[in-house]
Amino acid sequence: MEIVLLERVEKLGQMGDVVRVKDGFARNFLLPRGKARRATKDNLRRFEEERAQLEARNLELRKEAEAVHAKLDGESFVVIRSASETGQLYGSVSTRDIAGLLTEGGFSTARNQVILDKPIKELGLVSVRIMLHPEVFSTVTLNVARTQDEAEAQARGENVLGRQDEEDEIEAEEFFEEGVLAADEETEGEDEELNS
């Protein structure tokens, strides 16, 4: 289906472009959300008449998005989740979770504005893109941790998983040292009994 875009759509085109898309994409996404119209003669003529209004509205929305971008870009948010000792989350951090976190932080965000390249399923620092406007993107850092202390350690650049491994190794060494000492004492006692 041929459509005329009423705003910039990522990976598709700019406002006013006439593009061919699959029927389902047009009917289920672009047309209902007001991002495009069918490319008929009447709609093309109507678009040209409304173009100045659409561009003015787009410019206004872009300025608002740039104001939010100035405050939001580079911000860091902490997400506390349950995870295994290897750092695998029990579940994942979804776009809904991120949008809720940003909204709590004072940045009104819908989940369709959050762009994840892949699901967040591990502890650590993750960069996430937020689409404030089709032409304005911000990047925020999510600090995914099990506790607030771990989040602070990750923010300082420490490897919390490595720290946990070191603690486990120290506990194991202490356990085996105690076991070896106890075993040595027992064998010494047995040796003395045999020698007597």
CATH architecture assignment of the largest domain: Roll
Question: Number of folding domains?
Answer: 2
By helix and strand content, what is the structural category?
Answer: alpha+beta
Shape: elongated
Strand arrangement across the biggest beta sheet? 4-9-8-6
Question: What is the highest CATH level, the class of the largest domain?
Answer: Alpha Beta
Largest sheet: 4 strands, mixed
What helical percentage do the residues reach? 40-55%
Strand-residue proportion: 15-25%
Tally the helices: what do you get? 5
Q: What's the end-to-end separation, in Å?
A: 100 Å
The CATH homologous superfamily of the largest domain is named: Ribosomal protein L9, C-terminal domain
> How do the SSEs run, as a string of H and E?
EEHEHEEHEEEEHH
Average pLDDT figure: 86
Enumerate the spans where pLDDT stays under 50 for 5 or more consecutive residues: none
- What radius of gyration results from the CA coordinates? 29 Å
CATH-derived topology of the largest domain: Ribosomal Protein L9, domain 2
Tell me how many strands there are: 9
GO biological process, one term: translation
Function: Binds to the 23S rRNA.
Keywords: Coiled coil, Ribonucleoprotein, Ribosomal protein, RNA-binding, rRNA-binding
Domain Ribosomal protein L9: 13-40
